């Protein structure tokens, strides 16, 4: 039997679009978007800015610091010795782009591209949120005012790293991630939740990948799959990617809306604070979402 492949969703095909997105979140937790509305030229410009910023000397990249791990520059480390990433945390907060660009000495043009691209993805995230609400028969807004994190990633591959892991198997802690993967250098692999098999998420130029994270599993009362994924080194070529992480509510607990809880579907997780969960994921060394077990409701 042939391996299943990650769903591809056309955002311009409005027939049953909300239901298709919900189904992809339930069955895979990973899908690829075509005709998503982010201009191709802007995606190419952002890729160029990412390459130039990631090529900066280490001492400049290290100025992209943050008091909390994972919210600033991530240098190569024991777990991922070929991976590094720059990070702009809470991109909609006042002065976020000015602060990041002053850290890495970005030019006015680079800042303009960063801001345009980040907000194009932010708008796409809001659209995805509205489709999820619609597809589940809910009302209200999803993702409004939620902090989002923009990350630029570089995998420093060489002949010696072929066949090795660039980013270890993990789930994303937040609700969802919109990823511009490398359109030339493959390497992203996702776990098929039904078969348990690793499936290569092959690049399609001009498209975006959506990964569903731990917060979405809790918010959906267990309906959505927090996809396990990793990045492998297939060839000795530098690989870059850009990700927007839609994290969790800022001033509210993470919990399933009451409309998704009933006698047939009792509440699976107790409400929790996202930052507490993020720290627990780290302290319990639970990169694949295992720390969610600490928040299981007693009846689950």
Fold and architecture overview:
With 300 residues, this protein is α+β, with helices and mostly antiparallel strands. It is 27% helix and 19% strand. The longest helix has 28 residues, at 108-135. It starts with 7 loop residues before the first strand and ends in a 17-residue tail after the last helix. The relative contact order is 0.17.
Put the structure in a nutshell.
The chain has 300 residues and is α+β, with helices and mostly antiparallel strands.
What global shape is seen?
A: globular
List segments where confidence is low: pLDDT < 50 over at least 5 consecutive residues: none
Radius of gyration: 19 Å
**On the 0-100 scale, what is the average pLDDT?**
95
**Helix percentage:** 25-40%
Distance between the termini: 34 Å
Strand line-up across the major sheet: 1-2-9-6-11-4-3
Helix/strand class: alpha+beta
Quick one: biggest sheet? Answer: 7 strands, mixed
Oligomer: single chain
Number of strands: 11
**Approximate strand percentage:** 15-25%
Count of helix runs: 7
Order of helices and strands: EHEHHEHHEEEEEEHEEH
Q: What are the key terms here?
A:
300 residues; 7 helices
């Amino acid at each position: 039997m042939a391996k299943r492949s990650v769903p591809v969703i056309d955002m311009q095909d409005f027939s049953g679009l909300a239901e298709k997105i919900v189904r992809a979140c339930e069955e895979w937790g990973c899908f690829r978007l075509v005709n998503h509305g982010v201009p191709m030229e802007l995606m190419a410009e952002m890729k160029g800015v990412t390459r130039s910023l990631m090529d900066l000397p280490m001492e400049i990249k290290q100025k992209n610091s943050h008091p909390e791990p994972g919210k600033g520059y991530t240098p190569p480390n024991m777990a991922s010795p070929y991976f590094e990433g720059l990070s702009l945390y809470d991109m909609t907060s006042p002065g976020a782009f000015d602060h990041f660009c002053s850290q890495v000495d970005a030019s006015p043009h680079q800042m303009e591209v960063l801001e345009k691209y980040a907000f194009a993805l932010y708008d796409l995230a809001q659209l995805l949120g509205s489709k999820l609400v619609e597809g589940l028969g809910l009302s209200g807004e999803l993702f409004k005012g939620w902090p989002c994190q923009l990350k630029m990633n570089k995998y420093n591959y060489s002949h010696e790293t072929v066949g090795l892991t660039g980013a270890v198997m993990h789930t994303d802690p937040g609700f969802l991630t919109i990823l511009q993967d490398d359109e030339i250098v493959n390497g992203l692999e996702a776990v098929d939740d039904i078969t348990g098999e690793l499936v290569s998420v092959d690049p399609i130029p001009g498209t975006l990948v959506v990964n569903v994270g731990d917060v979405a599993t809790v918010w959906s009362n267990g309906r959505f799959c927090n996809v396990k994924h990793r990045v492998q080194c297939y060839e000795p070529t530098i690989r870059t990617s850009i990700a927007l992480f839609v994290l969790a509510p800022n001033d509210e607990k993470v919990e399933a809306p009451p409309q998704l809880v009933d006698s047939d579907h009792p509440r699976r997780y107790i409400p929790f604070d996202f930052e507490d969960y993020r720290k627990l994921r780290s302290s319990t060394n639970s990169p694949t979402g295992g720390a969610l077990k600490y928040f299981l409701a007693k009846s689950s």
